[in-house]
Design brief:
Rossmann fold; globular; 480 residues; binds iron/sulfur cluster; 32% helix; 15 helices
């Protein structure tokens, strides 16, 4: 099988051996869970429960009527004890519903739904009601990807099995342990989109999953998927960071480049994380909302690296030391992998829908280097997979020239950290880009609000003067 890839990228050490052979271990009985209202892209939800309410596993407990609406559900049976701000892995520390377990085992799932015979609207509504988000990163509502406008026809669905972040192995284990669910999730996604071509994209450091996935595809197409015309295959990719970025994946598989400021649907593609496909399969087959999360626990300060699955909202501190054994010289905890992860200040941070890994770092791994000055070597530009100019964006941000940073593509940066990784001067490029993007987005939003307010004021003034000038208007008649 020929290997596909993208332009740019780097080769950080993989360090996956520590957990790759550890079967996913299920821990289903936390004493409490902390379910944040804002663990997704879009406006935070509103609670549908109050302190003192009893809830069942799978019960909808938070929702909103926003454009990117995605509800959240109780992941255990218990009693709502608090609704208050709690620490969070995105460091936003938003409001959370705290549920204390009562030992119950009742579930409140949706009824199973046959995705191949229901309407498209019913299928999209099911994925939305099950609270499924993209489980690889920002928590973008999965149903939005399945509702592209008619002007953006989709020709291919890519299952993102690259798992290019060093250390993480949960996607690899999911391929080995639940290939049938992944293939069903892929078929459901293809069916909802009206697309035939689906590709499981896997890096070539995981070749052993290829026959496993191909066997599951064959069984599905010979059974439940027979006669539906699906063309589902497995494609090996060169192991390179950040191969799992949506834009990189699409470039590698299709040769197309997502335009600046654009989305995968602009080039006819939809990319789904493997965890998301499994959650989609469960939502149709079992009516189960997204209430459990698989993730890798690893790092030099983790004595027994493993792959775990816990109810969403389980707090890390509750897993230590019985489930996760940590060394005394633990220096830092990252949620996510070492390239894109976020350092959290407390072990009381819950596992969210988009937590793919937790890395426990030793002082050596967590060492922070002094930042140097750019020596204009150009390495960051050569390695940037998004064809950006990190050194120039850095210069613009250092002089707080946000317009200049915007003009050279700051918002197209996917914050992969490749530029920082290769920079010999250890310039804190990606850290500066993260903050710069937040500031730039806030400035744009404020400007849009100003423009809207000005337009509304002008329209109101014009309406008022038209009412005075018009003889037919009640105001004019009264004046007479
Ligand atoms: S890699 Fe670092 S030193 Fe080299 S041009 Fe980029 S920012 Fe400057
Ligand atoms: S500029 Fe952004 S996209 Fe390019 S390498 Fe750096 S972090 Fe990645």
């Amino acid at each position: 099988m020929s290997l596909k890839t993208f332009r740019g990228g780097a080769h950080p050490p993989g360090r996956k051996d520590a957990s790759k052979n550890a079967q996913i271990e299920y821990f289903s009985s936390p004493k409490q869970v902390v379910i944040h209202l804002n663990q997704h892209t879009g406006a935070p939800n509103q609670p549908l429960v109050k302190v003192g309410d009893s809830v069942r596993r799978g019960q909808k407990i938070a929702s909103s009527d926003g454009k990117l609406m995605i509800p959240h559900h109780a992941s255990i049976c218990g009693v709502v004890r608090k609704i208050e701000p709690r620490p969070q892995s995105n460091l936003l520390d938003g409001v959370a519903i705290v549920i204390e377990a009562d030992g119950g085992t009742e579930t409140e799932f949706l009824p199973a739904l046959d995705v191949f015979s229901c309407t498209r609207e019913e299928a999209v509504a099911r994925i939305r009601e099950a609270g499924i988000v993209g489980m690889g990163g920002a928590g973008f509502p999965a149903w939005m990807k399945l509702s592209p406008p008619a002007s953006k026809p989709i020709g291919i669905v890519i299952a993102n099995g690259a798992e290019c972040e060093p250390y993480l192995t949960i996607d690899y284990r999911t391929c080995l342990e639940s290939p049938g669910a992944l293939v069903f999730g892929m078929a459901a996604t293809l069916h909802v989109l009206g697309v035939k071509k689906g590709v499981f994209a896997v890096e070539d450091n995981k070749t052993d999953v290829v026959p496993v996935l191909e066997k599951a595809v064959g069984e599905f197409l010979a059974g439940e998927g027979s006669g539906k015309g699906f063309d589902i295959s497995v494609q090996l990719l060169k192991t390179k960071y950040p191969q799992g970025g949506e834009k990189m994946l699409i470039e590698a598989i299709t040769g197309r480049q997502v335009p600046s400021g654009g989305l995968p649907m602009d080039v006819g593609a939809v990319v789904q994380n493997l965890g998301t496909l499994k959650a989609i399969a469960e939502a149709f087959r079992e009516g189960k909302p997204l209430i459990d999360r698989g993730f890798t626990v690893t790092g030099g300060a983790c004595k027994t690296p493993k792959n775990l699955c816990v109810p969403v909202g389980t707090v890390l501190s509750e897993l230590i030391p019985d489930v996760i054994d940590v060394r005394a010289d633990l220096a830092r905890v990252l949620y996510g992998g070492p390239m894109m992860g976020v350092s959290v200040p407390t072990l009381d941070t819950p596992i969210q829908k988009n937590t793919s890994g937790v890395v426990f770092m030793t002082p050596g791994e967590a060492r922070v280097f002094d930042e140097g000055t750019c020596i204009r070597c150009g390495r960051c530009m050569r390695y940037c997979n998004c064809r950006l100019s990190p050194a120039l964006m850095n210069e613009a941000l250092l002089s707080e020239d946000y317009a200049a940073a915007d003009a050279i593509g700051l918002l197209d940066c996917i914050e992969c950290g490749t530029c920082s990784y290769v920079c010999p001067a250890r310039v804190r490029l990606v850290q500066r880009f993260r903050v710069g993007k937040m500031k730039l987005r806030a400035m744009k939003a404020a400007e849009q609000a100003r423009v809207k307010a000005r337009a509304e004021a002008q329209a109101a003034a014009e309406a008022a003067s038209a009412a005075v000038a018009s003889p037919a208007s009640p105001a004019s008649k009264e004046a007479k």
